Amino acid sequence: MPDPVKYNKNFDKLSEEEKELLEVNKKSIADFVEQSSSISDVNYATRNAHAKTYAVVKGQFFPNPDVSDDLKPFFDKERYDLVIRFSNAHLKVNTSKKDIPAYGFSVKIKDEDGSLLANYPLVNFPLFPVNSVSTFLQLFTAVNRFLMKKWRSLIPLIQQILKACPALFTTSFLKNGFELLRKRNDFILSFDYYSVGAYRLGDYMMKIKLSPIAVDKNFEKKLNNREALEKYVKSNDFTGGVYIQICYDLKDQPINKLNVEWKNSSYFKIGEVKIEKGSLLDARDCENELMSFNPFENKLFFQPVGKIQKLRDETYKISLQTRRKINKLLHG
Questions:
Q1: Which of 190, 224, 228, 298 is within CB 3.0–4.6 Å of 220 for a Cys-Cys bond?
Q2: What Gene3D superfamilies has UniProt attached to this entry (predicted)?
């Protein structure tokens, strides 16, 4: 097996044009969050993505004691405490019973003293539809403006959607798109969840997958996602295997091409996530709603890698800062 590719900060480097577009996007995020309570018709400011919370739970991560010696320094405890937020990717809090099947499984990992080790926002679709940072920022800005009922942004939104469309027509993206369509009515906890972009593992780079073990995909289909998830956690334990892929060859495992799957790098199991029945927290509690899963708060050796990932740093921060400011004003 070849040696893993080592992390280099050039993977994350943005051009001057991309930095300028990021500033425009940050302004659109702040404006969106300021108006989000009226956009979603709720009594608090929401996130600008994955706005709808289904549940927040406590969990644990148990590393595999048989991991290779080079990985053991990263997983040197028997157990790590987790806080997990389940969400929907929509920018608005949709009150209808039927949601688009785009789910989040965001994990906050804490050390034994309660300090943060890592945040991993995982999603149930392994790929990202846009590789170009400029195209993504312009598209995301147009979406924010359109949802703020700025109808003059409809044409720019359509233009950006058309610009992004060619990246959807890869074998990987089409295959996973059809698979998601086939599973669209499955129970939220029965999906695999992925990191999409890459993360550091010390000097190396990895992708992450969480796969549920023995979860009925037809669990309580008559209930909406929030009700079904709450019922499951109240009455069942959950176990999911945690797997990683390592980057060995940038041609087969590209860092900044997120619309294709990595190939020639097998997933291997590094541990399990467990959620004991009765571990449900109050998702509507202000502290839980204000939680951030910004992966740039991770310890240095678990930081995100890549240009699209790099955007998360400042966009998460501006979203959180604005939410905190607005919610403080709304609730005193």
A1: 228
A2: Catalase core domain
Tell me, yes or no, whether 2 lies in a domain: no
* pLDDT score recorded for residue 148: 85
Spatial distance between the Cα atoms of 189 and 280, rounded to a whole number of angstroms = 14
CB atoms within 10 A of CB 192: 18
DSSP letter string, 150-189: -GGGHHHHHHHHHHHGGGG-SHHHHHHHHHHHHTTTS-GG
Return the bridge partners of 87, or none. Answer: 53, 104
For residue 249, list its beta bridge partners.
Answer: none
Neighbour count for residue 297 (Cβ, 10 Å): 17
Contact between 299 and 199 under an 8 Å Cβ cutoff? The reply is: no
Q: What phi, psi does 315 have (nearest 5°)?
A: -70, -40
CB-based contact 211:269 (threshold 8 Å): no
Tokens of 207: 């992708």
Local confidence band at 287 (pLDDT 50, 70, 90 cut-offs) = low
- Phi–psi pair at 196, nearest 5 degrees: 65, -75
Percent of the chain beyond pLDDT 90?
A: 64
Here the tokens at position 263 are: 């190939």
Rounded Cα distance between 331 and 134, Å, is 37
Torsion of CA 317, 58, 51, 295, to 10 degrees: 30
CA dist., res. 319 & res. 311, Å (int): 12
CB of 194 within 8 A of CB of 124? yes
Q: What is the pTM of this model?
A: 0.93
Q: Give residue for tokens 């240009």.
A: 307
**Token digits of residue 88:** 């929907």
* Spatial separation of the C-alpha atoms in residues 289 and 287, rounded to whole Å: 5
Please check whether residue 26 lies inside any domain of the structure: yes
Residue 157 lies in a domain: yes
Whether 31 is covered by a domain: the verdict is yes
CATH number at residue 38: 2.40.180.10
> Domain count of the chain?
1
The DSSP 8-state label assigned to residue 15 in this structure reads: P
